[in-house]
Amino acid sequence: MSKSSKPPKDPEGRMALTDHLRELRSRLVKSVLAIVLMTIVAMIYHRHIETFLMEPLPKCNTPAEIAAFQASGKKCAQVSTIGLTTPFTLTLKVALTAALVATVPVWLYQLWAFITPGLHKHERRYALGFMAGGVPLFLSGVTTAYLLLPTTVQVLISFAPGDTTPILPPENYFSIATRLVLLFGFAFEFPLLLVMLNFGGVLSGKRLLGWWRGMIMGITVFAAFASPSAEPISMLALAAPIWVLYFVAVGIALLNDRRRARRNPDDGLDDEEASHLDLSVEEVASAEAVGASAAPSAPVPVSAPVPAARHEQMDDIT
Q1: Which residue range is the domain that position 93 belongs to?
Q2: Does residue 290 belong to any structural domain of this protein?
Q3: How do residues 222-245 score in pLDDT, each as one tens digit?
């Protein structure tokens, strides 16, 4: 065997610890390379991306714009950059965020490819479906965050006292925008994780349904801390979709448990719980009568008597 040939793969997906670490390193390197390449592309078009992200921000850099906003009863912000290296740091942050969003299929696939060797053949088919569902969920979270940006910014600016106009550094705004985008994207993946655990046999749909009070409370607390502003609008905008997706995940888990129970009634039993046994007594049919045989039975042979010397030898042995 040549040194370059690879060892055969285990059909059950068993791997040594070093092989697992090597596989993890390979998947991480591929994901990082894809993100780096997309970051370079995003840095080339960073002005278009920055303009797109700045669209929800109410900007007023001239006295006429400030007067127009004040007449409408809304607040605006003057955008001003401070620092020599700030524009480069800002560009890098925006490009990296855009690369993370654009390479969602790549790093989700690498995650799926790392988990696949440890799954059974029928579970790998489900994992591919989860990966296909994870991309639109992440993009839905990103879209929700972008649509929420104008309300979030307006609420934050409204805390400015009197007729003052706040001066907003762009790095401050982009920090809020990128944090909101990535946070919503990853938060929308949480129900998908619950479905994956159910299909893997870790959590049952009944147990997930029993956790609904704690889940709602936990999601609400998470949204309160994760939201960039303290107002309830952005908190509910983050928590409400996850509530809905959680109950959708519970419904899918219950349907999967019902389908699994039809195929295997003993699948839901615990490892230490005995399966159901049918102990009902069935009536035995009447036995047929056996007629007596006319021919005499053969005589039973009588064994020959054992000699006395043989008896004495056996006594000596015992």
Answers
A1: 23-263
A2: no
A3: 888 777 666 677 778 778 888 998
